[in-house]
Amino acid sequence: MRKQRIVYTSPLDALVAISKRLSLYEAQQHMDSETFADRYRKGNVSDDAVFVEWSNDYKHYLALHQQLAGLLRAAA
């Protein structure tokens, strides 16, 4: 599987796109991302490509969320 790099114009655009992907994972696996991440960290989920991608997307989501929260605090 060949990876594709996507460039977003803003952190908010990236957050929206990743949120949509997380929603798809959650619907397919019948589990929210936070629960999945906890189980994945504990080794209770396989290392199939879909789970590695989900884990990476969730980490990216958390980083973007933190970045945007910091920007909002600075603007307030």
Automatic annotation (TrEMBL):
Protein name: Uncharacterized protein
UniProt lineage: Bacteria, Pseudomonadati, Pseudomonadota, Gammaproteobacteria, Thiotrichales
